[in-house]
Amino acid sequence: MNPLYEVYPLHIENSLTGEKELFSPVLEGRVGMYVCGPTVYSDVHLGNARTFTSFDLIFRYLMHLGYSVRYVRNITDVGHLENDADSGEDKIAKKARLEALEPMEIVQRYTVDFHKVMGQLGALPPSIEPTATGHIVEQITMTQAILDKDWAYESNGSVYFDVNAYNNDGGDYGVLSGRKMDELQAGSRALDGQDEKRNPADFALWKKASPAHIMRWPSPWGDGFPGWHLECSAMSTKYLGDEFDIHGGGMDLKFPHHECEIAQNKACTNHNGARYWMHANMLTLNGKRMSKSTGNTILPGELFSGTNDQLIKAFHPSVVRFFMMQAHYSSVLDFSNEALLAAEKGHNKLLAAWNILQQASAKGGQGFDVQAWKDKCYGAMSDNFNSPILIAHLFEAVKFVNASEGGLAITAGDLKELQQSYKTMVFEILALQGVESQSAHKDALDKAMDLIIELRAQARTNKDWSTADLIRDQLNDAGIQLKDGSEGTTYSL
Fold first, then answer.
1. What is the mean pLDDT of residues 253-273?
2. Percent of the chain scored above 90 by pLDDT?
3. I need a labelling partner for 491 at 20 to 30 A (CA). Which of 183, 226, 288, 454 fits?
């Protein structure tokens, strides 16, 4: 039997070319995928969570198609300086200084938090999760190789990639982002240490550590630490080879991070690194860009618990995952009360239909073309992982299942195929299985709470404050919190 990737050929939108291309891996039947992981100096934010959830969907579907996948996602635990620049303080070292802790205590705390959140969102762990501090030797070796090619230079104990030398020798810095050298030079800000560079567009491969810098390693150029961009080039090629299949990350990493990676890889391997570059788009909250400075932000844990000022209730991680899947990974996604409430209803409808489908019988007929429906589901996912179109097709099946009484108007063979394919799409690929058994209980609880909230509202209307307060306090003692808002009262567990 042919693997599914031969039956449903995969097409991927390649950020490097701007085209949707037929996926052709370096090695037949195998996929090497590298995704830039978090810098672990704070709680993982919702934008990160969306990126990694998107690539979890991609990871799952590649495996389901029959590919053997090596998924590498790094942990950045050194070298990422403030404002993504080549100067300033290391983000992890700064956090450690502010909290009077060792840098690796900060790394451990927030790596654990990251794993917890991704587990709640139903994400599979990667095949390999390397750290930057665990690959200092590889980064020093790569820096020396670029120096040997005369595409880098040492300056005051730091080493910088020479973008002009690279371009003059056949390179194309800007090939991924579309930025031109004159624009980069004109738009570069004056930064501390800028005078060390020959060109404002040059970027650090290795930085000299100041006396106060606590994260430092010996190198041929003196004590220092690796540049942020270098770590991903070193780790991706170490575990996936000079040329591999997919490199992913958030849209904000396209420039300068991924642009610099390509230049480094070309210098050392004569390859771009990956054949296909993929980028997940940004998140907004209530129609505005998420920002800590304005307070328009929310952490995943706050979303799951309901302990936030942005949303009217808590949302289960599986509902949040489903909400993310309703938008294509490459499109902007806005979190809002209305959108999440609608996603919750859709999520529960999918699971309720599965409960019916499991117990359904076939009465014969051709009320639903199961094979054509299955082909459309695979066609959506094989067309650049189009999860919103897949979900639309799933609701076609939900409509058929819910409208059928006295048995489904399909053959017994088609019923078995529908059950298996529906289960695969909902629980294996979209990965909503975490709350499958809770759906019916949640519906019952919602109905009971609607009644209790109505009784409390009547008590308040009648100015029976003691009864209203008693209901609120008793629910609170039971772990159920009521929230009174302009649109009415809601509850969270």
1. 96
2. 73
3. 288
Domain count, the chain: 3
The domain boundary residue, chosen from 211, 246, 280: 280
Whether 29 and 134 share a structural domain: yes
Res 27 pLDDT > 80: yes
Whether residues 427 and 482 fall in one domain: no
Q: What is the mean pLDDT of residues 346-372?
A: 94
Q: Which residue in this structure is represented by tokens 């308040």?
A: 460
Here the CATH number for the domain that contains residue 347 is 1.10.730
- pLDDT grade, residue 418 (50/70/90)? very high
What is the percent of the chain with per-residue pLDDT over 70, rounded to a whole number? 93
Phi first, then psi: give them for residue 68, nearest 5 degrees. Answer: -90, 115
pLDDT digits (tens, 9 = 90+) for 266-283: 999 999 999 999 999 999
Indicate the helix (H) or strand (E) that contains 236: helix 228-240
Go through 456-489 and write b for each residue having 16 or more CB atoms within 10 A of its CB, e for each that does not. beebbeeeeeeebeebbeebeeeeebbeeeeeeb
Are residues 309 and 237 both part of a single domain?
no
Residue 195: exposed, middle, or buried by beta-carbon count in 10 A (0-12, 13-18, 19+)?
exposed
Looking at 438, 462, 481, the residue that finishes a domain is: 438
Question: Is 227 in the same domain as 295?
Answer: no
The predicted model gives 252-261 an average pLDDT of 96
Q: Using alpha carbons, list the distances in angstroms from residue 353 to 220, 345, 365.
A: 64, 12, 20
Q: Say yes or no: 52 and 188 in one domain.
A: yes
Report which secondary-structure segment, H or E, holds 91.
Answer: helix 91-99
Given pLDDT bands bounded at 50, 70 and 90, which one contains residue 439? very low
What's the predicted TM-score (pTM) here? Answer: 0.86
Helix pair angle (317-325, 337-359), 10° resolution: 100
112: CATH: 3.40.50.620
Domain range enclosing 445:
439-492
- Domain identity same for 196 and 267: yes
**Cβ count near 286 (within 10 Å):** 15
**Local structure of 489: helix, strand or coil:** strand
Q: Three-state DSSP class for 340? A: helix
Same structural domain for residues 326 and 200?
no
Pairing of strands 152-155, 158-161: antiparallel
375 plus 460 within the same structural domain: no
pLDDT value of residue 442: 61
- Residue 357 burial (CB < 10 Å; 0-12/13-18/19+)? buried
pLDDT-derived band at 457 (thresholds 50, 70, 90) equals confident
Closest alpha carbon to 25 in 210, 304, 239, 240: 240
Instruction: Cis check for the bond before 256: say yes or no (omega within 30 of 0).
Output: yes
- Token match 């000299």: residue? 208
Rounded CA-CA distance 110/406 in Å is: 53
